[in-house]
Amino acid sequence: MSLSSLSTLNSQLSNCVLCGTCRSVCPTFGVINREPASARGKVSLCSAFLNKEITLSERFIKHINECVLCAACEENCPNDVPVIDIILAARQEIFKKGKTDFSRIAVSKFFGSEKIGRNALKVASKIQNIFFKQVPEESGLHRRFPLPFVHGKRLAPRLAEKFFLEDRRQKTEVRSKKDKSQPRIGFFAGCLINYIYPNIGEASLNVLEKAGAFVVVPLDQSCCGMPAIGIGDIEGAKRLALKNLEAFEKYELEYIATACATCGDGLKKRFKELLADEGEDLQKRVENFSSKVRDITELLVNDLGIRQSPVSGLRSPVSIVTYHDPCHLSRGQGIKDEPRKLIEMSGHNFKEMKNPCKCCGMGGSFNITNYEFSMEINRKKALDIKSTGADIAATTCPGCIMQIKDGLHQLGVKAKVVHVVELITLNN
């Protein structure tokens, strides 16, 4: 087993002393205030399952799935209990027993299968106006009639007319000619940038090039595997990891950049765990790959060392910008200062919101399977953004962008929601 199994984590389970520190920071517990919603409660349930005191009942599965994997519990745990690893291990048990609900499997398989996902979404992009109506003055859609997995209140994102990687096929995966002084950077798009937010991908490539990089976009890259890991489908995630390894390593890259916090966390950490038992040669290849992965904000500030915006001259009026820390970036990768530095470089006025590191409630498929629960978590985030009076809410995760747009829409807040790199390309 590449990722830890529940049995191998047994000794770690006993490190939980039931102090309850996790309850004060857990976003799911903050909504329903029931013990199984907290990290402490979930660890206790997993311990009881290992001791054969309980089975994989519907209630057990429900409680294990009611988690957004934000890792706030781990960050605040005095005994360093690896709660996220424990929950992922429990989901592996659920998946192996064939008890994972259909909606979670559908989301993972949809993005995990490039051919099925791409073709289905291409058809959907052509007919989305039949099933959805444009929300006036907003970049989102409401359903026209009941649809599976689409709540009536949801502000759904519009699928791109041209997918990011599809557009690359019409151009080229190698962006420009390289000279010896340029760092060679591969760009990992991820599913949401590819299918919904190609504008973030284009903004990322433009900024990297203006910062002096030689950029490559491998066309045979795939999903990062995080949706599969999230439901416990380790073999499915492993296949995607191998595919991405082969797609990128042939270019002899110095860095691999991504503009998705979740993808970055997966490629840096989970990628190595997935393939840890696959032999020494493969482990070396994986270590080499993961060591090159950078969040684009980290790459621009720390590795490329930009000290001012790569482009000059504001196209739009100076705005008040606040910033939301994605869980997979701030806690997952320890990156907090770099996005803020880029916001300051953009020429806009930065205003910190209250609790910028609190989870927005997206949680991957959690937003689909537990929409109202997810939006209850998000409501606090949306109110914090509203209280800043910001014109723009920036972040570094496409999933967070989707979630925050929905939350602000439901509060009637007109603030624009963008990726940090888009602020830089608002210039000139």
Describe what you observe in this structure.
This protein is of the alpha/beta class. Among the domains are: 7-99, Fumarate Reductase Iron-sulfur Protein, Chain B, domain 2, CATH 1.10.1060.10; 320-424, Rossmann fold, CATH 3.40.50. It is 50% helix and 8% strand. It contains 22 helices and ten strands. The strands form three sheets. The chain has a four-stranded parallel sheet. A hairpin with a 6-residue loop joins strand 1 (132-134) and strand 2 (141-143). Helix 3 crosses helix 6 (83-96), helix 7 packs across helix 8 (114-131) and helix 20 crosses helix 21. It is globular.
Tell me the number of strands.
10
Strand percentage, roughly? 5-15%
Give the overall silhouette. globular
Low-confidence stretches: none
Q: Which class of the domain at 320-424 in CATH terms?
A: Alpha Beta
Name the average pLDDT.
Answer: 90
Helix count from the secondary structure assignment: 22
CATH fold call of the domain at 320-424: Rossmann fold
Q: Report strand order across the widest sheet.
A: 4-3-5-6
CATH architecture of the domain at 320-424: 3-Layer(aba) Sandwich
The rounded Rg comes to: 21 Å
Query: How much helicity do the residues have?
Result: 40-55%
End-to-end Cα distance, whole Å, is 51 Å
Largest sheet: 4 strands, parallel
Classification by helices and strands: alpha/beta
